[in-house]
Amino acid sequence: MDRVNEYSCLCPPAFTGTQCELDVDECSVRPSLCHNGATCTNSHGSYSCICVNGWAGLDCSVNIDDCAGAACFNGATCIDRVGSFFCQCTYGKTGLLCHLDDACTSNPCHEGAICDTSPINGSFTCSCATGYKGLDCSEDIDECEQGSSPSLINSPTKDQARYGTTHLVDFLGVYARAKDLSTDIICEDSIHTESESSVSSKYR
Questions:
Q1: Are 79 and 86 in contact (CB under 8 A)?
Q2: Where does the EGF-like domain start and stop, copy by copy (predicted)?
């Protein structure tokens, strides 16, 4: 632009200076150019955004659909996340891609145990209830043999599991007599089993 004894230059947005010889650092002037944790890098006359995993676009504002190239098996539903995806398995299947059989569907755990499935190989792990042990929690722990006092709280739970919920176990006269503090405990139990109806009428 001509003036009296001087001139001025109308610079494009990416340059400044008397003769537009200076590059404008867009990253410093406008720090919000790049989104979602991207890194802004200035270049001569321009800038670029280096996106983090899961994002794309000039300003890193586009979420990449990770399900587009995902491989969920056996009718599983793919759920897109940022930089990853999740396969929601159908019943009886497990694993990161729902490609494994869920071993817990066959109810391998006993006596009120909790069954957990490994997403790596589909195998099961049983978390046993109090008083039971073993791979499938089917082995009863003999508390007397271990030298511990019988529990009046835990014992009915174990016997109710054996005889079903239609019976109540009424523990009467349970006591433990120790021959010596350093020897095994001798347990003498008097167990009386009644039906729910008879117990209910007894305490009315």
A1: yes
A2: 1-21, 23-61, 63-99, 100-138
Q: Is 26:48 a contact under the CB 8 Å cutoff? A: no
15-63 belongs to which CATH class?
A: mainly beta
The rounded distance, in Å, linking the Cα atoms of 7 and 1 is 5
- pLDDT, tens digit (0-9, with 9 covering 90-100), for 124-139: 999 999 989 999 999 9
Tell me: the pLDDT tens digits for 58-95?
999 999 999 998 889 999 999 999 989 999 999 999 99
198-to-144, 163, 167, 195 alpha-carbon distances in Å = 31, 16, 10, 5
| Cα gap 112→127, rounded to integer Å | 9
Alpha helix stretches (DSSP H) within the chain: 26-29, 143-146, 154-163, 196-202
